[in-house]
Amino acid sequence: MAKCFSFAETRNRCFRFSFSRAGLKSATTDLGDGTVMHCWVPKTYKPSKPNLLLLHGVGANAMWQWNEFISPFIARFNVYVPDLLFFGDSYTTRPERTEQFQAQCVAGVLKAHGVRKTNVVGISYGGFVAYSLAAQFPEMVEKLVLCCAGVCMEDKDMEDGMFPVKSVDEAVSFLFPQTPEKVKEMLKVVFYKPAVNMPSCFMQDFIDVMCTEYLQERTELVDALHKDRKMSNLPKINQPTLIIWGEYDKVFPLALGHRLKRFPFYAFPLLRFALVFLLSSEA
């Protein structure tokens, strides 16, 4: 019998309403060659405000990642919040899976909306895309904030025991869980104080709505992030850059943040505190 209620879909509807009420509208851009990206953009662009691009991580789409902070950010910026490829309503039929390709697509969306310069905040995987955007399009990115983004990781770090998993397959199994048991494991890794007592039916609903679509493609994104990665190959960027980290982050351990010695670095007990700090400072 079909489900008559979905907690995750209900949250999606609430988030859409929240984004719209805050002053954003849903927009889809066809970039050609089978690539389509969805992005939340300002209903009314205000030239007096700077632009801000928010890039989500792999554990959520744009709405789930940024809903809590949309209203305060919009008070200061013209905000753009895309779904990265294979999340939300963004996809491609092209074979590329690198963060470089994601960054090129994000740049294409911004240009389609007339954005020539922007500040960028990227969380986790979104930080990899943000860094690549700054490296490939230096004239577009004014300032950069990386939140818990291990851009300086190397492929050997996983084998050396830096992460809670030993292989890409293990990483995929908890980043995109397919059973309630795996959701519990994911919550223990991703959250400092996880709600592991959530009913299994809610966990299964979350899996059905958020973790089953584009599973193979998302697996390839994680693999591309890790494969043959060397810190020595990380391009240098010259934009003012701030690094903020969750003190207890297990997905990308704090030690990775300390490798980025060129940039100001702040660690917080919870990532939420880091974003509050970001809101209280000049982005």
Can you give me a brief rundown of this structure?
With 283 residues, the protein is α/β, with parallel strands linked by helices. It contains 12 helices and 9 strands.
Features:
283 residues, alpha/beta, Rossmann fold, nine-stranded mixed beta sheet, 12 helices, 18% strand, globular
Rg, nearest Å: 18 Å
CATH architecture of the domain at 7-155 and 230-277: 3-Layer(aba) Sandwich
- Average of pLDDT: 88
- Straight-line N-to-C gap: 50 Å
Overall description:
- It is built from 12 helices and 9 strands.
- Helix 7 (168-175) packs across helix 10 and helix 8 (180-190) crosses helix 9.
- It has a domain at 7-155 and 230-277: Rossmann fold.
- The radius of gyration is 18 Å and the shape is globular.
- The chain has 283 residues and is α/β, with parallel strands linked by helices.
- The chain has helices at 7-22, 62-66, 70-74, 99-112, 125-136, 155-159, 168-175, 180-190, 200-211, 215-226, 254-258, 271-280, and strands at residues 24-32, 35-42, 51-55, 78-82, 91-92, 118-123, 141-147, 241-246, 265-268.
- Helix 11 links the parallel strand 8 (241-246) and strand 9.
Task: List the topology elements.
Layout: H1 7-22, E1 24-32, E2 35-42, E3 51-55, H2 62-66, H3 70-74, E4 78-82, E5 91-92, H4 99-112, E6 118-123, H5 125-136, E7 141-147, H6 155-159, H7 168-175, H8 180-190, H9 200-211, H10 215-226, E8 241-246, H11 254-258, E9 265-268, H12 271-280
Parallel strand pairs: 3-4, 3-6, 6-7, 7-8, 8-9
Antiparallel strand pairs: 1-2, 2-4, 2-5
